[in-house]
Amino acid sequence: MITPSYRNLVEYRARANPCVSRLSNYLQHECVGESKVTYLDYTNQSLEPRRIDVPEDEISQLLNMSPSVSTRFVFVENISPGLMILLGEKLDIDPLFFADYIHAAFANLEKTSPPPSLATLPSSIATRDHIHLHCQKVIALEGTDDELKKAPYDLKTRSNVPRHVRRLLTLPGRRLALAQTCCSFIIKSIGDMNICLFLVDPAATSVVHSLGTDHTSMYQASISHGSFEDFRVPEFYSTFKRSPSGDTWNKASMMESIIHYLQACPPPGLDLTSPSVLSIGYYPIYITLSEWNIYNFLISRCTKHYQYSDQLKAGRLHDELLLDLQRWKRRSRSSHRKLNILRDVISSHILPSDDAAVWNAVLNDINYLHDQLHDYSQSLEQVVMTATSLIQLLDSRRSILRL
């Protein structure tokens, strides 16, 4: 009897759960870039991990480790279809975990099934053994004004799992863009070992726009204004003067940021004999919330831009402006839903042994971001209503003038 492959399992699950169907298609694609794999190995005697950078072709040996190692954090940046199949078979991972990681965007029901985050009810999402952190990262396109003048609204990242990038056309400078990003993590126990797997998107250093199969436009990109704020307690001068070189890392990379924090200090509540999904996700969650804070600031900036726009004051409205306002309305609704799901997921995973003060602070931060987003969304809604009323008045005036 032929042993079924992991791809066979994915195809089987796609019949029961259509939201997995895109994963089935994705596993047949060729990878467009190299994956980056890093281990952090913990022993029972120490919370200071040892970092091991692993060539992609050696990840099949991830279960071969020293007997003293009890827990291994496995980070995979820019995962390829082949690595998904290998990890799925080695760690016996539910295909839904990979499906939710690759399927963040949803075009329309006529073309594809909705992603797991939309196809599954909130109560099911909150009780799964894996967590997905979705957010919009603010990036800046690089190049001359003439080069960016031709850059379209709809772009994608150059990664094995391409993410949507939306250029903000109506803001002054026309350089800012929103890039979708995701970090997913799960814990698998194999014998006496704990494998904590993290799937992380690479930094969006370049974006592309495909014009058919023969021509692709590419634009360089960078993290806007130095990325997120460090959320740890800052060091004092007495500490800094002993090490003036400072504590630096590549903040453009989500993977390097998580590894940096884990090496600097173990997350609250990390028990290496039985780690919880919240304890390993503490730093990714806070990095994601910091990105949400930047996103909210951008919405505030856009709201003020529209409220004081000369076009609205003078009644000089055009289709691009109105379309952009409608897009922000949709983004706000989607953002509200993502923050609600994240709050429910964290609440459902808090254990009696967890530090209540730590996770109550996280939930308070989510509530703060949610309330802030709600206020900005209300302001945007008023701008949309004003713009709609102006259009109706202008249309009525044109009709009268034609009489």
Total number of helical segments?
A: 14
Proportion of beta-strand residues: 15-25%
SSE succession: HHEEEHHHHEHEEEEEEHHHHHHH
C-alpha termini separation: 82 Å
Number of strands: 10
Give the tally of structural domains. 1
Largest beta sheet: strand ordering: 4-7-6-5-9-10
Instruction: Tell me the overall shape.
Output: globular
**Cα radius of gyration in angstroms:** 23 Å
Secondary structure class reads alpha+beta
Mean model confidence by pLDDT: 85
Pick out the low-confidence regions.
Answer: none
Main sheet: strands, sense, barrel: 6 strands, antiparallel, barrel
- Portion in helices: 40-55%
Structure description:
The chain has helices at residues 6-16, 21-26, 81-91, 95-102, 116-119, 122-126, 145-149, 237-240, 254-264, 277-280, 282-307, 310-314, 319-349, 356-402; strands spanning 36-43, 46-54, 69-77, 130-141, 154-157, 164-167, 176-190, 193-200, 206-211, 215-223. It has 403 residues and is α+β, with helices and mostly antiparallel strands. It has one domain (6-402). It has a six-stranded antiparallel beta barrel with strand order 4-7-6-5-9-10. A hairpin with a 2-residue loop joins strand 7 and strand 8 (193-200). Helix 11 packs parallel to helix 14 and helix 13 runs antiparallel to helix 14 (356-402).
